[in-house]
Automatic annotation (TrEMBL):
Domain FDX-ACB: 524-617
Keywords for the protein's UniProt record, in alphabetical order: Aminoacyl-tRNA synthetase, ATP-binding, Ligase, Mitochondrion, Nucleotide-binding, Protein biosynthesis, Transit peptide
Gene Ontology BP term (one): translation
Cellular compartment(s): Mitochondrion matrix
Transit peptide is among the record's keywords: yes
Enzyme category, top tier: ligase
SMART domains: FDX-ACB
Top-level taxon of origin: Eukaryota
Protein name: phenylalanine--tRNA ligase
Source organism of this protein record: Tyrannus savana
UniProt key word Cytoplasm: no
Recorded GO MF terms: ATP binding; phenylalanine-tRNA ligase activity; rRNA (uridine-N3-)-methyltransferase activity
Length: 617
């Protein structure tokens, strides 16, 4: 393994650089903005420079931190770590000038930093503008370092105190460009790393086998990075798979378990009884490849998804709003229809616990725990009539004990089974509310962690229902549906569902195969940006708010975290209705700059006018 190359910028008296020289496996390149003659006049600088050179370090003068690639040949630009301690424009430069300095510095650093390198920036207390600063300045009066770094593709991955007293021989200098010290009490070292690239908005199509034909469909924009991710595949170490495997292992202690994941189609067709059409991702198949009526009638239970879904370029096909004719396909919103179709064929013999699992897709409003796609595990058990209550209790007890055994993370889970009364709809999360549309529910399964979350009863992570519609009058089917993504979030302390889908490898590195751990975010204090949009709704039409939220998800690549209705009024005389929404843009895993959020807002304005038929104000 080669030497670790460390670049130090803006050194004053070179005492910080001197403290690093001689470290095993490290090659130090120390620089300053002044000439050698000017820099050597600072107290102790000549001694530190001599020590650096004697240890084999490089010392370079007159280096502009905003043009770093100009000072190093291409083969010497791969620095593993860049330090910039207490940057400042000099004299009485204000926060705006210093933000500009940082912006240019970060863009320059991106050109000479190794792919997995780090940028360390030490700032005086309050300058950074993050919650780590105590006391924290008002945002407009800070250097806004996280937002500035995002403009160059960096995220804040760590922040810790800058303890000057622990750095041997270090003496701060350079107050207002003079050879004077300054206060570093409460100073913070901000550690930045590269972000994964922004989501590509190129339209994608998906090819699958449906019946005897190959068909293709355009992937909805909100789902372009969520198809065929393979979280539940045998070689996956994703926490969602770990939760499923642990549940199955626990259930197998009480029941024979049969996994029946194969042959489950991504597509359903026809009308889904009781479900609001605006909650469904409707799909238009290529006309020349549309299966026959007979194939469609068997497609629900028999369609087979290729083990490797093929993505290719596609063009957008607009599906008529609200279309749900018998021949119209849609992405499966639940695994329950699969089980119900197989139920009619007697596929669930008594005594064996059958398990179906896979991703399901539902349009929903933008909230912290509302997921347009998640992994469902559906447990089906045929029991003798009259014994369903005791079997449900055994099933829930087993699920509870299994989940309790998973709290290696330090977050103790608490499970609460609540009987459905029909009056709890307003208290339910989107997962449970949608499940209620699929048919009568007997029990809700709530879960919270200790210390408890914001919801007194926790989050609904599952539902239990029964069915008496069997050919055999002696048997009753018990269905238990669990949201694996919510379970993984609660067990691992993941506050944002989007993190489960991040392409950043730093997420999965925290979860070795078969282990659940407390998640530590690699993107701290991500900046947020607020934009408003106002428009006129066509007279006499009902505005589809779920479609608006779904469009915002797709246009932003899931970087909209909040959509709030700010104002609504009806124009006298014309009857036209105006709506004003406030959108908050924020990423949990990628760099999002002020400019990037503004560009998303502009794209959203164009698309809501084009796709939703509104008139912008």
């Amino acid at each position: 393994m080669g030497l670790r190359r460390v670049l130090l910028l803006g050194e004053g008296n070179f005492s910080f650089a001197a403290s690093l020289c001689g470290a095993r496996g490290t090659h130090v390149v120390a620089t300053c903005y002044e000439s050698e003659e000017d820099a050597s006049r600072r107290g102790g600088a000549a001694r530190s420079i001599r020590r650096l050179r004697e240890s084999g370090a490089e010392v370079v003068f007159s280096v502009d931190c905003t043009k770093l690639k100009d000072y190093f040949s291409p083969e010497k630009r791969e620095f593993d770590c860049i330090y910039f301690n207490f940057p400042h424009c000099g004299r009485k430069a204000g926060v705006v000038k210093n933000r500009e300095l940082l912006a240019h510095f970060f863009r320059s650093s991106a050109e000479v930093l190794a792919e997995e390198g780090e940028v360390h920036v030490a700032l005086c207390n309050g300058q950074g503008g993050t919650p780590a600063d105590q006391p924290r300045r008002e945002w407009h009066n800070s250097w806004q370092i996280v937002a500035v770094a995002a403009g160059a593709g960096f995220i804040l991955s760590n922040v810790h105190p800058f303890n000057a007293e622990t750095i041997h021989g270090y003496k701060c200098t350079g107050y207002r460009s003079q050879d004077k010290s300054f206060c570093v009490e409460g100073a913070l070292n901000h550690i930045f790393t590269r972000s994964t690239p922004p989501l590509c908005f190129t339209p994608q199509s998906c090819k699958i086998q449906l019946g005897s034909q190959k068909v293709s469909f355009q992937v909805p924009q909100a789902l372009v990075d969520k198809m065929n991710r393979g979280f539940l595949e045998p070689n996956s170490n994703h926490p969602v798979r770990t939760v499923k495997e642990e549940l199955m292992a626990g259930l197998s202690q009480a029941f024979p378990v049969q996994d029946t994941d194969c042959c489950l189609s991504l597509l359903h067709h026809g009308h889904l009884e009781g479900v609001c059409p605006s909650s469904i991702f409707w799909i238009a198949l290529s006309p020349e490849e549309t299966p026959s009526t007979e194939e469609m009638s068997h497609g629900l239970a028999r369609a087979v998804l290729f083990s490797h879904v093929d993505f290719c370029q596609g063009t957008e096909k607009k599906v008529p709003e609200g279309c749900h004719s018998p021949g119209q396909f849609y992405l499966r919103p639940s695994l329950l229809p699969h089980a119900q179709a197989r139920m009619q064929e007697g596929a669930f013999p008594a005594g064996t616990l059958h398990v179906l699992s896979g991703p399901v897709f539902r349009k929903c409003r933008v909230t912290p725990h509302s997921m347009p796609v998640f992994h469902e595990v559906l447990i089906v058990l045929a029991v003798n009539r009259g014994a369903e209550s005791s079997c449900v209790q055994v099933l829930v007890n087993n699920i509870t004990s299994t989940i309790h055994s998973l709290h290696q993370t330090g977050l103790k889970p608490n499970i609460n089974l609540q009987e459905a009364t029909g009056s709890e709809t307003t208290e339910l999360n989107d997962f449970a509310a949608f499940e209620a549309q699929l048919g009568k529910i007997q029990y809700f399964i709530f879960m919270e962690t200790d210390p408890p979350g914001s919801c007194e009863k926790g989050s609904c992570v599952g539902v239990i229902r029964t069915s008496h519609e069997l050919a055999s009058s002696e048997l009753v089917l018990v269905f238990a549906s669990l949201n694996l993504d919510l379970l993984a979030m609660l067990l691992c302390g993941i506050s944002d569902w989007r993190m489960l889908w991040t392409p950043d490898t730093r997420f999965l590195r925290q979860f070795p195969r078969g282990q659940l751990r407390l998640f530590k975010s690699f993107s701290l204090y991500p900046p947020s940006y607020v934009h408003d949009v106002s428009f006129w709704v066509p007279e006499g039409e009902q505005f589809d708010e779920v479609a608006f939220h779904t469009l915002a998800r797709g246009v932003s690549g899931e970087m909209v975290v909040s959509i709030q209705l700010r104002d609504s009024f009806q124009q006298a005389g014309t009857g036209r209705r105006s709506l004003c929404y406030r959108l908050t843009f924020q990423s949990c895993d990628r760099a999002l700059s002020c400019r990037g959020a503004a560009e998303m807002q502009l794209r959203l304005r164009e698309e809501i006018q084009r796709q939703l038929g509104v008139t912008l104000r």
